[in-house]
Automatic annotation (TrEMBL):
Complex and partners: Homodimer.
InterPro entries in UniProt: FAD/NAD-bd_sf, FAD/NAD-binding_dom, Ferredoxin-NADP_redctase_2
Keywords: Flavoprotein, Oxidoreductase
Name this protein carries in UniProt: NAD(P)/FAD-dependent oxidoreductase
Gene3D superfamilies, alphabetized: FAD/NAD(P)-binding domain
Location of the FAD/NAD(P)-binding domain: 3-284
Top-level division of the source organism's lineage: Bacteria
The protein's required cofactors: FAD
Length: 299
C-alpha cells in the first residue's frame, strides 16, 4: 500500500514526486516513457534556461532528484483503475496490481503528428508546436505551418503576431470555411493543399523547408505544427468517474488540483490549462501539497 501513486513521469508528475519526496511519503511513479515531453528538443521560455532545455534533460534531472528523495519508479503502463472506499487499485499492462491511498493522474496528452520523414529531430529546435512557448523564435522569419484544416489555419493566423511571412501547408487538404480563407488571404498567407513527405534540414537546428508528395519543395526558415486531433490521456480518470470536459481534459479544483473523486488528483496537460511546462510544474507542486495535507488527516 503506497501513500501516493503518480501515473505519468512528465513535468507535472516529476515535480509532484519531488515535493512528496521532500514530505518523506511512500510514493511510486508509474510511467510508460511515451510522454509528450520526450519529443521536445528545446523549451525556451523557462526561467533559468535562456538557451533552451530539452524535455529529456528535464525528465532525467527530475527523476534523479526524485530518486534521491526515496521515490520509486516503475516502467509500465497503467490500464485499469478502481476505487474501493479509501483504497485505489491500479492494474498495469504487465499484469501487476498496486494499491494506494491517493492517486495523481499526470498522464498528459500526445500531439498528433503524421508520419513525416526527419521531423522528430527538429521538434522544439527549428519546428515548433506551441506559439506561446516558441512564437518568439520565429519572429520576422518565413514560417511553414505544417498542419491540417482549421487547426492549422488558425495557428497560422496566430503566428502573424510574430511574422508576416507564413505558408500554410494543408497536409490533409481539409476544406476550409470561407471566413478562414478570407482571413488567410487578408494576411497574405499562402495555402498549399498537399501532403508533406519529408522535412528538409541540414541538421536539427537548420530547417530548410519540406518536400511534398508531388515532388515539390517549399523553402522556409522555421516550421510550426498544427494538425489537431491531439490525444488526451484521460482514460484512467474516466474509469474512476472523474468529471471530464467535452474535449476529454480533466476538471480539477483550481486551488487543490483534486478532481471530483475524493483522493484522486490530476496535474499537467491532462488538465484543462494552457499546456505550458512551467504551469505543469506548478500544477504538480500544488497537487502534492494538498495530497500531503490529506495524508496527514489519514485520508
Amino acid at each position: 500500500m503506497y501513500e501516493c501513486i503518480i501515473v505519468g513521469a512528465g513535468i507535472a508528475g516529476l515535480q509532484a514526486a519531488i515535493q512528496l519526496g521532500r514530505y518523506m511519503h511512500n510514493v511510486l511513479v508509474i510511467d510508460s516513457h511515451n510522454g509528450r515531453s520526450n519529443l521536445c528538443r528545446g523549451y525556451h521560455n523557462i526561467l533559468g534556461w535562456p538557451n533552451g532545455v530539452s524535455g529529456q534533460t528535464l525528465r532525467e534531472l527530475g527523476q534523479k532528484q526524485a530518486k534521491s528523495l526515496g521515490i520509486e519508479f516503475i516502467n509500465d503502463l497503467v490500464i485499469e483503475a478502481e476505487k474501493h472506499d479509501k483504497e485505489i487499485l491500479l492494474r498495469t499492462k504487465q499484469g501487476t496490481e498496486y494499491k494506494t491511498k491517493t492517486l495523481l493522474i499526470s498522464t498528459g496528452i500526445k500531439d498528433r503528428i503524421p508520419t513525416i520523414k526527419d521531423i522528430e529531430p527538429c521538434l522544439g529546435i527549428s519546428i515548433y508546436v506551441c506559439p506561446d512557448c516558441d512564437g518568439y523564435e520565429v519572429r520576422d522569419k518565413h514560417v511553414l505551418l505544417l498542419g491540417s484544416g482549421s487547426t492549422g489555419a488558425n495557428l497560422a493566423l496566430t503566428l502573424t503576431y510574430w511574422t508576416n511571412r507564413i505558408t500554410f501547408i494543408n497536409h490533409d487538404s481539409k476544406e476550409l470555411e470561407l471566413d478562414i480563407k478570407d482571413k488567410l488571404k487578408q494576411n497574405n498567407i499562402t495555402i498549399i493543399n498537399e501532403q508533406i513527405e519529408a522535412v528538409i534540414a541540414e541538421n536539427e537546428s537548420s530547417f530548410k523547408g519540406v518536400k511534398l508528395n508531388n515532388g515539390q519543395t517549399v523553402s522556409g526558415d522555421r516550421g510550426f505544427i498544427g494538425f489537431g486531433g491531439n490525444l488526451v490521456h484521460s482514460e484512467l480518470a474516466k474509469q474512476l468517474g472523474v468529471e471530464l470536459l467535452e474535449n476529454k481534459h480533466v476538471l480539477v479544483d483550481p486551488r487543490t488540483k483534486e478532481t471530483n473523486i475524493t483522493n484522486v488528483w490530476a496535474a499537467g496537460d491532462v488538465v484543462a490549462h494552457s499546456e505550458q511546462v512551467t504551469i505543469a510544474m506548478a500544477d504538480g507542486c500544488q497537487a502534492a501539497i494538498w495530497i500531503h495535507k490529506r495524508l496527514l488527516k489519514g485520508t
